[in-house]
Amino acid sequence: MGVALITPFHKDKSIDFDSLGRLLEYQIHSGIDFLVVLGTTAETATLTASEQAQVRSFVAERVHGRVPLVLGLGGNNTMAIVEAAQTLDMSAFSAILSVVPYYNKPSQEGIYQHYKAIAEASPLPVILYNVPGRTGVNMAPETCLRLARDFENIVGVKEASGNISQMDEIIKNKPDDFMVISGDDGITFPLITLGAVGVISVIGNAFPREFSRMVRLALEGDYDHAREIHHRFTELFSLLFVDGNPAGVKCLLNAMGFIENELRLPLVPTRITTYEKIKTVLKNLR
Predict the structure, then answer these.
(1) Residue of 129, 250, 275, 277 marked active site
(2) What confidence tens digit (pLDDT) does each residue in 214-249 have?
C-alpha cells in the first residue's frame, strides 16, 4: 500500500511542515510500503514551484530512505513535464506518477505521444495515472497496454477510472511485470482479487495500519479477513469523496487531531453535515 500524501496548511494557508512531519512518522511507523509526494491529493495544483520544491526536500530529508518515495509529476503541458523530468533533483525518489493530461482532452494517440515523451526523458520508472473523473478523458485499455509493451520504464498504472471491466482487461492482457495499482480505495479489495498488486490510497493517510493490513491479506489470498476490513470502511469510502478529495480526508485527519481543517481555494472544507457523519463513523471505528 502506498499513500497519496496530503499537504497540511495553517489557518493562513501556509504549509504546516510540523504536521506534515508528524504525518510522515505516523505513516512509516504504521507499516505503509511507499509514499506518493505531490500527487492530486496533495493539492499540488495550488502550490507554487517554490513550495513544491520545499515539500520534495522536506519529505526526502524526513523519510531518509526508510520507505520508497514516488513523485507526482504530471500536467497538461508535455514539454514542461519533460523539462522537469530532465532537470529536477529526483535522487531521493524511486519512480514518478504522471496523470493523464487534463482539460486539453487529447485523443488516445495524443495520450500515447505524451507518455512516450515522458518515458524517453525520465531517469526514473514511470507509473501512469488514469483518473477520467478529474481529467475529463479516459485512457483506453488499448493505449495503456500499448505503452506498457513499448516502454520498459513504464512499469505500472494507477487505475482510478472506476470501470472494473476496463481494469480487468488491462490485467488480463498486460506484460507480466507491468503493475496494475488501484487508485480507488473502495474497489481495492475486489481489484486485488482480479490481479491488481495494491493501492495508492487516500484513506491510508488516516488508517495506514488497518488499510495496509487489508491489502496484504488480500494479496496473500486471505479474502475472508481482508473482506472484513474492507466492509468496516465501506461507509467511510463514500463519505471521504462526497465533498471532493482531499476535503474528506482532511476533515477526517482534523477529527483525529492531526491537522487543521484547511484547504486552498478553489477547494473548501466539507459541509458540516459531512463532518458530523465522518466523526460518527470515526467513533464507531475506534
Answers:
(1) 129
(2) 999 999 999 999 999 999 999 999 999 999 999 999
Q: Cell numbers 505531490 correspond to what residue?
A: 38
Picking from 179, 221, 174, 220, the residue whose alpha carbon sits closest to that of residue 200 is 179
Give the cell for residue 62.
Answer: 524526513
Determine how β-strand 69-72 pairs with β-strand 34-37: parallel
Per-residue pLDDT tens over the stretch 73-104: 999 999 999 999 999 999 999 999 999 999 99
126 confidence band (pLDDT: 50, 70, 90)? very high
Catalytic hit among 158, 174, 250, 277: 158
The reply to whether 26 belongs to the active site is no
Question: Which residue, 1, 67, 39, is CA-closest to 207?
Answer: 1
Provide the residue ranges of all domains of the chain, joining segments of one domain with +: 2-220
Q: Does residue 250 carry a catalytic annotation?
A: no
0.85 exceeded by pTM:
yes
Q: Which CATH superfamily is domain 2-220 in?
A: Aldolase class I (3.20.20.70)
